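In the previous chapter we treated chains in isolation. Here, by contrast, the input contains three separate entities that must be folded as one system, with a combined length of 1326 residues.
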Amino acid sequence: MGLTRLLALVRKEFLALFRDPKSRMILIMPPLIQLVVFSYAATLEVRNVDVMVLNRDSGHWGAELTSRIEASPQFHLVQRTDDPAELREAIDREWVIAAVEIGADFSRDIESGVTAEMAVILDGRRSNASQIVSGYISSIAAGLAADTPAGQRLATVRVGTVARNWFNPNLEFKWFMVPGLVASIAMLVGLLVTSLSIARERELGTFDQLMVSPLRTHEILIGKVIPPILIGFLHITLFILAAVWIFGIPLRGSVIALYAAAFFYLVSLVGFGLFISALAATQQQAILGAFLFLVPAMLLSGFATPIANMPGWLQVLTYVNPLRYFLVIVRGVFLKDIPLAEIIAETAPMAVIAAITLPAAGWLFRSRLE
Amino acid sequence: MTTLRRGRVRRLTALIRKESFQIIRDPSSILIALVLPLILLFLFGYGVSLDTSRTNVGLVLEETTPVTLELAASFQNSRYFDVTVGHDRREFAEDLVQSRIGGILVIPNGFTADLTAARHPAVQVIVDGADPNTANFVQNYAAGTVSTWEAQRAAERALTATPLLVQQRFWFNPELKSRNFLVPGSIAIVMTLVGTLLTSMVIAREWERGTMEAMMATPVTAWELLAGKIVPYFLLGLASMSLCVGLAVFLFGVPFRGSILALYALSAAFLMPSLGQGLLISAVTKNQFLASQLALLSGFLPSFLLSGFIFEINSMPLVIQYVSMIVPARYLIPSLQSVFLAGDIWPMFLRSILVLLGFGLVLFAVAIRKTAKRIT
Amino acid sequence: MTATAKPVLVRLDGVVKRFGAGAPALDGVSGDIRGGEITGLVGPDGAGKTTLIRLMTGLMQPDGGVITVLDHDARKEAPAIQAAIGYMPQRFGLYEDLSVQENLDLYADMRGLPRRERPAVFDELLTFTDLKRFTDRLAGKLSGGMKQKLGLACALIRKPRLLLLDEPGVGVDPISRRELWKMVENLTTEGIGVVWSTAYLDEAEACDHVLLMNAGKLLYAGTPPGLTDRVAGRVKRLIGIKGSRRRLLARLLDDDKVVDGVIQGEAIRLVLAEGDDGDSVVKTAGAEADRLIPATPRFEDAFVDMLGGGPGGRSALAEAQAARPDGDGRPVIEARGLTKRFGDFTAADRITFDIPRGQIFGLLGPNGAGKSTTFKMLCGLLKPSEGEGRVAGFDLRRDAAEARNRLGYMAQKFSLYGDLSVGQNLDFFAGVYGLAGARRRERIAMMLDVFDLAPHASMSTKDLPLGLKQRLALAAAVMHEPEALFLDEPTSGVDPITRREFWTHINGLVEKGVTVLVTTHFMDEAEYCDRISLIYRGKSIALGSPDDLKASVATTDRPDPTMEDAFIALIEASEQEAAA
C-alpha cells in the first residue's frame, strides 16, 4: 500500500518537473551555464594581459629584456613608451596591468657587474592578477639575469628553487574548478528543485489535494525528497563524465566512495531545500530563499577561495555548509586519490547536518500546516 | 497646456509617493535593498579573500648545518608562511594530500656542500597542484624568500649577489588586500540587485495583482508609469550604494581617494541600464517568479562572473570576452575600484558613463515599447 | 423613460478577438450599452466577458469590428476613453499595502481630481461605501466585500459617464453583493451607464439590459424578461414528492419532453419542451408526486433552453458504483463542537452537526464567516483547536490516514497538476489512493469513459476547457469510490450545462449511499442539499432543510422567499440578536 502511494508520488514529481517548461529550465539552464561560464571563464589564471615597457636604456640588455617580455606567451600586447606620463595614464586607466621601467644605466650596470635595477609598476586595484603578472616578469628577469656575465659566473652558486606540482603538474586551473563544479551543480539544482516543489503545489492549489489524500506527512516529504536526490545524482554523473572526457581531468580515486559521499551530501542539501520550501508561500519566495542560501554557501565553501583565508569566526560558519565537505571529497577523489578514512571523516559532518536539517524541515512543514 | 502639465506632475508625484509607501511596507524590498547588500558586503569583506597572506607549509630539513638553519630561519620569519619543521618529507605527504598544508619546502641532503662547491644548490618546492592559485603563491613566495636570503648573505660578504634586482611597486593598493577591490566590486552587484531584481519583481507584481491594469485604464501614460517606478528605485539604488560605501570605508577600511561626485555620477549612470533591464524583464514576463529567475540569470550572474569583478576577462576565451562586452557591470567595476583606490580618473569615468548611459537608453527604449498601454 | 431614449454609450459592431490559434475569444459580438441603466454582461467563465470589457477600455485591440465608446473609436482614441470611464478589474485594482485613504488619494491624482473638490468627494464616497471608519486600514486587510466597495470608490473618483465592473460579485457574499448593487443602481439615476459582468445568472435578472454570452458568441441582447419570455408557461414545479426526488429527477431528465430539471428543496423545477402540457411528466412521476404547478421563469431556465436543454439524468459513474449498504446507521460525517482559533480570533465556534449516509449537506455563509474553516477541519486540512471531527467513523486526529482514504475532495479552484496529462493525473490519484494492478487500470479506464475524457487523455490538463477540467477534478475525487465527498464551491463560474451534468453525477452517487459535504455561494446549489448549516461569525446560526430555512423567514409580504432571501433574513436576524 505505502509503496504504491510513494511510487505514485515520486513519479508525479518527475512528470511535473519534466513537463513544466519552467522547471525544465531549472534542470537544464544552471548546468549549462555552470559548464560554460565556470569551466571556461571563471579562472584566476592570468593570460592575454597587456603590459607596457618604458626603456630608458640604449644598450643591449634593455633591448634584450624588452624583447623577452614581448616574447612571453602570457602577454597579449606589449606597448612601448618613452613618456612616464603615458605610463602613468596607461596604468591609471587600466590599459595595462603592469609596466616595466628600465633605467638609463641598466646595460652599463650589467656590463660592469654592478647590480642593475629595474622597476615593475603593478595595478594594485587588481592585486590578485597583478601579483601573478609580477611573478611572470620576475621569472623573465631571472632568466635574463642568468644570462648576464655576472649571472653566468654566479650560476653555479645561485640557490635555485625546483618546483614540483603534485596532483596537477601544469597547475591547470580547470583541474581545480571542474571537480568543484560537480559539487556545486548538485547543490544548485538540488536546492532549487526541492525548495520550489512544495511552494509550487501551494501556489497551484494542489497542495490541499495532497493533504486530504491518505498520504502521511512523512510520505509526502519522502516523495518530495527522492526526485531531487536522483536528479542530483544525474547531474553529478554528467559532470563527472564531462570532467573526464571533455576536460581530461584524471579521476584517480574511488568512484564508489565518491557516490556514497554524494548521497549524504545530497540528503543534507535537500534538508535545507525542504526547509526553504516549508517556509516559502510562493515560488518567488522560494527562489529568493534559495538564492539567499546559495550565495553565501558558494562563497563560504572553498569553492573559489580558500577557507583558510577567512577570519576564524567566519570559518566556524562554514562548518554547517555541506558544500565545504563535499568539495574536499570531490577534489580529493579526482586528483589526489585521498584515503577512505579521509572520505569518511568528511562525510560524517554531512550526515550530521542531514540528521538535523531533515527532521527540522519535517517539523517546520508540519507546524506550518496549522 | 499648463493644466495638462500640472496633471502630469501630479500623477507622477502620486505614483512616486505610492511606490515609496510600498517600498517601506513590503518586506521583500527591505530584504533586497537592505539585508542582501549587507550580507553580500560582509561576505566579500570577510569571507572571500584572495590574499594567501599566510599559508601553512611543511619545511623539511634533510640536513642540519649552520647554512640550512639560516635558510630555514628565513622561511620561518617570512610573513607568507606558517612553517612546521620536519626532517623527512614523508612526514608531510599525508598533510599535503589532505590539504592541511599548501606545500612542502625541502632543503635537501647535500645542500650545504652544493653551495660551497658551486654545484647548483637548490631548494625543492612541492606544492598542492589541486589548488593552483595557492600553489602559485607558494612557489613565488618560496623563490622570493630564497632570493632575499641570498641577498643578505651576499651583503654580509660584500659580494655581488645578483646581477639584477626587480623592484616591485604596487600602485593604489600596496598592501595587496583583495578586500580593497572586492568590496567596491560588490557594490556594483548590490546595485544590480536593486535595479534589476527588485524592480522587475515589483512591476511583475503589479501585473499579477491586476493593479497595473487598473492604472492603465486611467489617463496615466506609459511614460508616467515607468517614470513612477524608475525614480523611486533609482533613489533606492543610490541609497543602497551609499550604505555600502559607508560600510566599505568605515567598517572595512577601504580607502576612498576619489570624489563623491564621481562616485554618484558613475552609480547613477550604472543604474540606468540596470533599471532598464529590470523594466524590460517585468514587461516581458509579467510574473514575479519568472522575473526573479530571469533577473538573477541575466543580471546577477553576469555582473558577478563576466564583469572582471573576480575573474580576469582577458584570460577568458574570446567568445566569452565578446559576451562580457554587453554586461554593464564590466564598465562600472574598474571605475568604481578606481574611485576608491586610485582617485578621480575622469577620462576613464566619462567613457564608462557614456557607455552605461548608451546601454540605458537602448534598454529604456525597448522597455517603453513593450510597456505600451496594452494588454496582450 | 423608455429604453430607446437613453443615450448609447458603447456601440459594439462585429467585434472579433483572437488569442493564438483555436476558436476566437470573441466572435462577431454586436450590441449597445446605454447610459442610465445597468447592462449585465452575462456568461460562464471563458465566455469572453473580461476580454470584451478590456476592449472597451482600450487596453486591448480588437482583431475585427468596431468599438465606439463615448463617441471615441477604442482602437485609436484610447486615452480619451480612459479619461472618461471608471473601471474596476477583477481583483479590484487596489494596492494592498496602501491604506484606504492612500488608495483614494492615488486614484484622485491619477484622474486629476482638483484638490478643492477632494474633501467633498472623499466624504461622499466614504459615506456611500460605508468605509469612513476604515480610512487608515491597509486595503489588504479589508474583507472581500469592503475591498469591493473601495474598488468601486476608486473607480468613481471622478464621476465617470461609463462604469465598467468586471465580475464585482465574485468572492462576495449575497449581503455585500446586494449592497453593492444598490450603490450601482443609485449611480444609474444620475445617467451613468454601468456594465456589470457576472457568471451568476440570478444577478443578470436584476439588470435593465443584458448581453448574454457563451463561448465568445453573443446569445442574446435585450431585457431579461425578453429572454425569460421564451420559456413562459413552460416552467413548472413538481411538488409533494414522496420517495427520492433525486431518483425521480433522473428519470424525468431522460424524458424528451423535459428540457431542464433541477432540485429545488423538496420540489423539482422543470422546463418543459415547447408545446408540452406536462402530461408526460405527471405520468412519469406517477404516484411519486402530487402535482405540477406553474413557476415564474428564471434567467437560467431560459439560458439552458437556449443552449438546447440540459443533459440526461443518467450517471454512468453512479451506475458503475456498487451501492453502499446502509451500514450501522451511524452518521458518515460528524462534527462535534469543532472550534478553531487563530490567535484570539475564533474562526469557528463549537460547530456541531452530523450527516447520515446518502445525504447532501451544505455549508452556507458569507465570506470569512467560518464555513471554509469548518470544511477544512472536517477533511483534515486544519487541526481543530477543540472538538472533534469524524469521517466514516474514523477520528480525523488519530486515524487521519484511514479517514482520508475514505473521502474524496474537490477544491474550489481547479487544483490538479496542470502540467501533467489527463491520464497522468488519473494515474497519480489512483496511486495515491493505493489502487494497484488491474483495479487501477480498470478504474482509470472507467473514469476516462464515463467522463468522456478518453479523447483528451494525453492533453496537458492546463490546456483543457473549463468543463473538462471540472469533469477531471470530479473523476480524481471519486476514483477510489470514497464514502464521503467534500466539495468546496464545486461549480463556481461553470456554465449551467456542465453544472447540471455535475449534479447528475453527484445525485447518482448519493443515491448509491455516498455522503456529500458541500460549501457554496450559489443559492441554486444550496437547493440540492438535504440539509444546510448557515455559518455566520464562526457560529452555526441555522440548521435545517432548504425548505425549512425558507419557511422560517416567510412573511405575509413574502410568502414564498427564495434561498437568497432566507440567507439574508437569517443573517440580519442574527445581527440584531447580537446587537440586542
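Chain B has 14 helices and five strands. The longest helix of chain B spans residues 179-209. Compare these points with the single-chain example from earlier in the chapter.
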